[in-house]
């Protein structure tokens, strides 16, 4: 059973080489610091993270991990669009992910 007081986040980091890194955590700032210290994911050890671009809180670990999974499947343009228009996250459940997956920005 999940802790009802725990926060679950999907987050997106901007790396020094302008790539994006997406992950899951219960504490975004702490995880960002771990990435910057070179002790996070293998990817961020070679692509230095410079900024938290986006974070979204979820009620459950499952929802946060699902959001991370679907977000990673999006194109870079779709990811940037979602980051720029975070109100898309107000669509109930994970429907926003499916709507965005169908969206092809020009």
In short:
The chain has helices at 28-36, 42-46, 61-73, 76-84, 95-102; strands at residues 8-15, 20-25, 49-58. It is α+β, with helices and mostly antiparallel strands and 106 residues long. Strands 2-1-3 form a 3-stranded antiparallel sheet.
Question: Could you walk me through the main structural features you see in this protein, from its secondary elements to its overall organization?
Answer:
The protein is of the alpha+beta class and 106 residues long. The protein has one domain (8-102): GIY-YIG endonuclease, CATH 3.40.1440. Helix content is 42%, strand content 23%. The chain has five helices and three strands. It has helices at residues 28-36, 42-46, 61-73, 76-84, 95-102, and strands at residues 8-15, 20-25, 49-58. Strands 2-1-3 form a three-stranded antiparallel beta sheet. β1 (8-15) and β2 (20-25) form a beta hairpin. It is globular, with a radius of gyration of 14 Å. The model has no long low-confidence stretch (mean pLDDT 85). It comes from Lentilactobacillus raoultii.
Task: Give the helices and strands as they follow along the chain.
Answer: EEHHEHHH
Q: What would the average pLDDT be, to the nearest integer?
A: 85
How is the CATH topology named? GIY-YIG endonuclease
What is the chains' assembly state?
Answer: single chain
Per DSSP E runs of 2 or more residues, the count of β-strands stands at 3
> How many domain units?
1
CATH class type? Alpha Beta
Low-confidence runs (pLDDT<50, min 5 residues)? none
Termini separation comes to 43 Å
Largest sheet: 3 strands, antiparallel
Radius of gyration: 14 Å
Q: Largest sheet, order of strands side by side?
A: 2-1-3
| Individual helix count | 5
Helical coverage, percent range: 40-55%
Strand content: 15-25%
Shape descriptor: globular
CATH architecture: 3-Layer(aba) Sandwich
**SSE-based structural type:** alpha+beta
């Amino acid at each position: 059973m999940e802790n009802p007081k725990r926060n679950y986040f999907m987050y997106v980091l901007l790396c020094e080489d302008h790539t994006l890194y997406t992950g899951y955590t219960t504490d975004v700032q702490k995880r960002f610091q771990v990435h910057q210290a070179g002790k996070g994911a293998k990817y961020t050890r070679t692509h230095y993270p410079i900024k938290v671009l986006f974070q979204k809180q979820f009620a459950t670990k499952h929802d946060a991990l699902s959001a991370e999974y679907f977000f990673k499947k999006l194109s870079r343009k779709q990811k940037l669009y979602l980051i720029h228009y975070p109100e898309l996250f107000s669509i109930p459940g994970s429907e926003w992910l499916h709507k965005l997956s169908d969206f092809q920005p020009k």
